[in-house]
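Q: A reviewer asked whether we had any structural model of the full assembly, not just the individual parts. We don't, so I'm hoping you can provide one. Inputs are below.
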Amino acid sequence: MEQTKKWFANGYLILVFVILYAPILFLTAYSFNSGGSMVGFDGFTLEWYQELFSDTRLLIIVLNTLVIALISATIATIVGVAGAVAIHNIEKTKYRSMLLTLNNILVVSPDVIIGASFLILFTMLGISLGFFSVLLSHIAFSIPIVVIMILPKLKEMSPTLVDAAQDLGASQWQVFSKVILPYILPGVFAGFFTALTFSLDDFAVTFFVTGNGFNTLAVEVYSLARQGISLKINALSTIIFAITLALVLGYYFLSTRKKPKTLGGTD
Amino acid sequence: MKNNRFARLALIPYALWIVIFVVAPLVLIAYNSFLDIEGHFTFANYGKLLSPVYMKMMFNSFFYSLIVTAVSLLVGYPVAYFISRTKHKGLWLILLILPSWINLLLKTYAFLGILGTAGPINAFLEVIGVGGQQLLFNDFSFVLVSTYIFIPFMILPVYNAIEKINPSLIYASRDLGASNWKTFQRVIFPLTTDGIMSGFQLVFIPTLSLFMITRLIAGNRVITLGTAIEQHFLVTQDWGMGAAIAVVLILVMAIVMFATRKIIK
Amino acid sequence: MSNTIIRFENVTKAYDDTVVLNNVNFEIERGKFYTLLGPSGCGKTTILRLIAGFIQPTSGKVFIDDKCVNTIPAHLRPVNTVFQDYALFPHLNVFENVAFGLRIQKVKEAEVKERVANALKFVNLEEYQTREISEMSGGQRQRVAIARAIVNRPQLVLLDEPLSALDLKLRTEMQYELRELQQRLGITFVFVTHDQEEALALSDEIFVLNKGIIQQSGTPTDIYDEPINRFVADFIGESNIVDGFMLEDNLVSFANRSFECVDQGFNQNEPVEVIIRPEDLEITTAELGKITVQVDSILFRGVHYEMSCYDEFKNEWLVHSTKKVDVNSKIGLNFGPEAIHIMRLGETEAEFDKRLEAYEE
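A: Here is a predicted structure for the entire assembly that you could use as a starting point for your response.
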């Protein structure tokens, strides 16, 4: 009885995860198809990878996407840390929850709303649509998520740690740099990587606020896909997937192996 | 550290961000919704929203979003539950999150091939004798791909809610004579309502606003609020009308947030 | 340099409408071990935080070394604190935790090494320099916290219920160590606790606090033997408190009889409260006792039995004795004149001191 239940549970999980990965594996498989379409596998080839690497336009777009992601995540993390510290230090619950509500608006807002409203904003401010407007948008929608990732860390930190640092002579800046920042660092990293993910994953907002001549990968794929299928895209997805997989699994094994010892010390 | 100069200084960039990128955009959307295509003040946009065409579009949009949310919950809840019972939770979770690092456009693009007339699903249907079907460009493909995209956002909050349950509650329930199923029904499920509500927020609202799936996969058969907004802003350039629909979407969002938060409390 | 290190002048601290410290005045002298004793919410931790500079008084002045420090922030005050939850920095190891204050002062590396090593030696942790905080036990963390405070050579160490998280055995051990440490260092310790036994064992001086007011201050024996009011008597050790009145000097009446006592300076027939400590009551037969009581319940406390008894006027009498008696039996209680302590109703500390001085001469 227990055994069949276990089989069912495992079977179900595996099925769902196979479906979850099917599209990615599908893309990967066809990236090696010499047939030139995602119909029928004619033979193995690396031709699409060659074509991808000789397509400077596409490579520049990939580079744009990465640059936007890195810069926006970095700036969003800095502003987000400041925001989280500021929110945490507001003593009146009323103001704190008001700021938090404002903070969360962009997190729950649908992409189209963010995209459309930013489009109006940039047009009104006279900011031309392109690299700069996309960068600003990515920073803007990443900030609240960084704040959300850091706040719990700040909350969990015992206030006596700050007292202790002050007591030992640390100035306000030293309290922040020597105690608070190291303490919330995991949250800061989590925030940075989530911001990175949000930026790399974004399509809708960028689609609204980008202009001629500047594209991120998602927007490019959208226009390519509307024209039909190109196996260069498959090759590109495969490379992206391989890199993410390596990074994530590497991180997982490192983090499980280096787990801090929780031994109670012996006297 | 409370109330010091450093924290007040930190508030400046953050407050600037709130004013420019949170408050101003909302105000601008609301303002634009009262402008016609020439920039004159009008209520006409809201008038048009009440016309049968728009009412039907909005109804459809809600309807399909609800289906997507329901399917995500039905498929996703057991996944969350089973993961919480496995040994290597961390690994399963990473495997769950991993696909979301692949841009969703790429995944959507993959479905063009999978569901295509010459794709593997159709090939399979041929083999088992059902015969080829047009799987793309209809409401089925919309629901399928949307569910595929959003299901992790249902699984994660439900999983977190299950993990938060104190294991002694489950022992207590067993101790009081409840079977596994009864324990699930009377203890675990009620305690995961929070997670389900967060999942609802995270799936329902984004599905309302999807537009690229409707364009690429559903062949414009399903028009969501998002599609309509995109259409007005980027195709017909009628920002006023687009903004009016956006206001509706924002209101729906506010209502959903409020309603689910009430339940959460 | 005057011998007073801390002085509070009419210090009041209020949050919104709640007054947590009400017009408090006291002085703390160099080199002694002080304890602030009281139930939770009595204001003892508030006093500590005012001295450390984490909070500012609503009114009144705090002096350190005869300088008003109201406007001086915590990081510039010559005091260090040992926190209740230790507040050790989880991202730093033992050495770096202790070195934190020295690094802030930009002390030279060689000196840092030496002073940290010395401080850790002081608390018997010299072998643990490179350990992570998460690898240390509760008692060890406690010692790291102490080392971290004393390494900066403060004139005053504040200890906020530092032993409350430890188990009984470790706690007693740490009490000895703390007392010894204070004497070796010769600096002032201000110790906060709600544990009266701890206070009695450790202190040179105790301040008993309740409801934001210092109820009584004095040496442990003063406070134990001559509690000023019902609160102090109840809080410091177990007490039997019954109502009575003074017939004349050295004669008090309670439980419908008059007894010889050693208290003077009262009005005739003044109503008073009478305290007799449970360990001062001696069990005898019903016939021989000064008062007769019936045993209601009995508990074995290890060193002694604790009997709860009632006299015919429904006064409860708690008795500590190594003798065991039967429940429901009638016994007699004996006590000498010195065992009786008389408290005047609503007497302030100043009046109390004056009266004591008057008849001690």
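A: Points you may want to mention in the reply: The mean pLDDT of chain B is 84. The radius of gyration of chain B is 23 Å.
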